[in-house]
Amino acid sequence: MAQKESKNLLNKILKNKFYPVIFLALIVFIAVVLLMYVNNITRVRIIQQREAKIVSQLKNIFPDMEKYELKDDIYIILKNNQTIGYSFIAKGKGYGGEINTLVGINKDFTIKEIVVLSNSETPGLGTRITLSSFTDQFKGLKPADVVLSKEGGKVDAITGATISSRAVTESVKKELDKNIEIIKKNNY
Amino acid sequence: MESQELKEKVSAKKFVQELAKGIILTNPVFVLVLGLCPTLAVTTSVNNALGMGAGVIFVLLGSNLIISIIRKVTPVMVRIPVFIVVIASFVTILSLVFEAYIPPLYESLGIYLPLIVVNCIILGRAEVFASKNPIIYSIADGLGAGLGFTLSLIIISFLREVLGTGSLVIFGKHLFSIPVLSSSPLSVFIMPPGAFIIIALLMAFFRLIGVLKNE
Amino acid sequence: MNSLLTIFLSLVLINNFILSKFLGLCPFFGVSKKLSNAISMGAAVTLVMLLASIATGIIYNYILIPYKIQFMNIIIYILVIAALVQIVEIVIKRTNILLYNALGIYLPLITTNCAVLGITLINAQNNYSLLQSIVSALGGGLGFTLMLIIMSAIRERNELADTPKSMKGLPIAFIIAALLSLAFMGFNGLL
């Protein structure tokens, strides 16, 4: 008897004309609660991952780094609470898309090292910009030298990948000039 | 007693049936031609293909399970939005978990990870099967379609990676290199045109050997 | 680099939705056999992409970011798109029944078109402003429509050609797409 009654009740609910909307709202509510829960659990870990990624990239260039500060999109590299260098990301328009280069400079504003972070260049040709045979050229360069050698500077372009080489070189120079101004102005 | 045993025997066989059909007979990529977008985009390496495959299996299992559980109380009128909310929730969970625990995979899958939500395979299985069948078979169906999808991804990405880079690298471990190919690989296969070519040739091949029907 | 023209052109030619990003493939291979269908389909998808980019652009910039709930974007975006497609469907049905019939089942299927959700995700990924989102939707949609038109023109002619049995239908269509994709790669150095 009790079973039949509850079945009748269930049928009544299902046939109610507001039921579809209420059901959908209920599903959405459950979904939102569930997602907020999962987001809470993973949030800390996600932030850690992003932080770890930045730290590992900076440490690639500054192995002595102890911590860093971020001001005006410039990473100020610190050791023993002394500034040992600066770092920032240069974005350039390459052959296949955006090229992101991490630039590390010394306190005297010469380049310490550059690392090409991401690109969509032609595999085997343009992607050679990520190799040390290309990026090592930048080590120790003064800002004025960061120009392709065929245009009077000290950076030899990769044969067959002039556009990719130029994209890196020009974006690095642009960011370099811009950020040196900012550093000087604010005494970072 | 005897009829119950008979019922259980039938159900085990049916479980395997539903599972197997998703892998070959109604293979999502080569037969139903669904879920093309991620297939071509993600198969630049076997690594990515495995990651995407695992993700799709997770979402398929989850959504098929839930949709099958609530199938009797889901009003027909709002069923599509309900399916979408369920699928989108699983995809969001997948995305958060990948971002937190497997960042490299999360980054290389890019926008194709959230695009799992509109992968026709998942909505298709929900509408056609999970909303009308018992839980245990819905699980089998989801698992089968997911495995079939992953299998197709592996075949395509294997060909693209080996031809396009000359070597195979999975989970950071360099598995092998083909000598002549790795020094001058056929990079076209890693790029978009190559994806189209490979899937065209594979489809034609499957038709030739009789696994697929001609048009 | 973020100039509107660059965004627009790069989506039409360089990062073409179909030939380079593989978004919107299902209707591409399904509908593209007749030229008239191709134009209608392309226009419908572009319209939805535009509306979706505006709606999700507003939601992203004014709700998701301020309240730090970006992770809800997947579920919110797809529900917004589903609602928009419903509305567009009703509007087309009321104003142009011929178009409605021509598009058929492919109209509601725009909801699951990777191109629509794709453009909203691209806008979020690149942190586009509302204006940039609109331009990128137009670029993506135009690129998509362009491909649909080119593809349908080629396939109409190809129907008359002598294709090997196993390549008939989809495989040869994929090869055509491959050749188009290869050709369009020539635009890479444009910008």
Layout of helices and strands, plus pairs?
The complex is a heterotrimer of chains A (188), B (215) and C (191).
Chain A: H1 2-15, H2 19-61, E1 67-71, E2 74-79, E3 82-93, E4 98-105, E5 111-118, H3 132-135, H4 162-186
Antiparallel strand pairs in A: 1-2, 2-3, 3-4, 4-5
Chain B: H1 2-23, H2 36-42, H3 46-69, H4 79-101, H5 103-109, H6 120-130, H7 135-165, E1 167-170, E2 173-177, H8 179-183, H9 192-208
Antiparallel strand pairs in B: 1-2
Helix pairs in contact in B: 1-7, 3-4, 3-6, 3-7, 4-5, 4-6, 6-7
Chain C: H1 4-14, H2 25-31, H3 35-64, H4 73-95, H5 97-103, H6 114-125, H7 130-158, H8 170-184
Helix pairs in contact in C: 1-7, 3-4, 3-6, 3-7, 4-5, 4-6, 6-7
Q: What would you say this structure looks like, in words?
A:
The complex is a heterotrimer of chains A (188), B (215) and C (191). Chain A has 188 residues and is α+β, with helices and mostly antiparallel strands. Chain A has helices at residues 2-15, 19-61, 132-135, 162-186; strands at 67-71, 74-79, 82-93, 98-105, 111-118. The longest helix of chain A is centred in the first third of the chain and has 43 residues, at 19-61. Chain B is mainly alpha-helical and 215 residues long. Chain C is mainly α and 191 residues long. Chain C has one domain (4-190). Chain C contains 8 helices and no strands. The chains are: A alpha+beta (188), B mainly alpha (215), C mainly alpha (191). Chains B and C meet through helix 2, helix 4 and helix 9 of B and helix 2, helix 4, helix 6 and helix 8 of C.
Radius of gyration of chain B: 19 Å
Shape of chain B: globular
Instruction: Kindly report the spatial arrangement of strands forming the biggest sheet of chain B.
Output: 1-2
Helix content of chain B: 55-70%
Biggest beta-sheet profile of chain A: 5 strands, antiparallel
Work out the helix count of chain B.
Answer: 9
Strand order in the sheet with the most strands of chain A:
1-2-3-4-5
Report strand % of chain A: 15-25%
